[in-house]
Amino acid sequence: MGSVAINNFWNFTTITTACRNFGDPSCSPRSLPSILCSGFKTNVRAFASQKSVKKSRKKGKTEKTDTAIPDKYVVGDDVSPNYVEDSKNTSPLDTSEAETSVLMIPSRGSVLQACVITSGLIGLVGVVIREISHVASAGGLPIVDCSVEIPLTFQLWHLELITGLVILVSSCRYLLLKIWPDFSESSEAANSQVLSSLEPLDYIVVSLLPGISEELLFRGALLPLFGINWQSVVAVASIFGILHLGSGRKYSFAVWATFVGIAYGYATISSSTVLVPMAAHAVNNLVGGIIWRYTSNSSK
Fold this sequence. Notes:
This protein is mainly α and about 300 residues long. It contains eleven helices and two strands; from the N terminus they run ααβαβαααααααα. It has helices at about 1-20, 35-65, 95-100, 110-140, 145-150, 160-180, 180-195, 200-225, 230-240, 250-270, 275-300, and strands at about 85, 105. Pfam families: Rce1-like (PF02517). This is CAAX prenyl protease 2/Lysostaphin resistance protein A-like domain-containing protein. One of its GO terms (molecular function) is endopeptidase activity.
């Protein structure tokens, strides 16, 4: 469009220069050829069309800018599909509290994968310790044979001990959830992060695998190495409790895990088998998960 205006301006300059050079008195603005007038008209039309195009372009840019989606409503590309935001307790009027209260919940596949891998590694460490102690003890080294001290045996009366442990631990947990706010918050944070995305049948997996692997390591391997006595029961239970810190769980949850570890240690010494704490631990996990699911669904 700019070349049209330049060409018409050049034609006008050529005609006026020629009139001045020849000194023709008839070359006045009124007697200029009709082509000159048409040139002016073309020039005006060109500039008018150019202005209208610019206006339309500016108008289009303005409309695009006004209709753009605000950044706060755009989902970022860096959000992992393995996580889901839980913002049911957030308020749109308080953005600072909303940002801090958003809980990233792992997907169902991520939870199950982490449970299988972690439980497998913990159980593997327990098996290795028991086997090494067995080989070392058989070779004459002054090391306790864990597989002999705490074997994988089962007797019928062990069912009574398992039932008593489940009633004791589940009742104490339910009571503490009512009277200890800090413990209740820690339990809610841990359960929400692990159990929210699971199906009902998945609770069996996340209850059974940790119960078996953790007891195999702590009560089946570490406890006999430390010694079959109350001092070792408390020491191993304290390690068990400390390792339960993190993922929203505070020191109150570590205290609770230590108490549970002492109960499982007592059951191990009383029964002389690791199967009793394994079964009690797995059932207690399942009962705790079912209670949390029932109470969380009732509160919605």
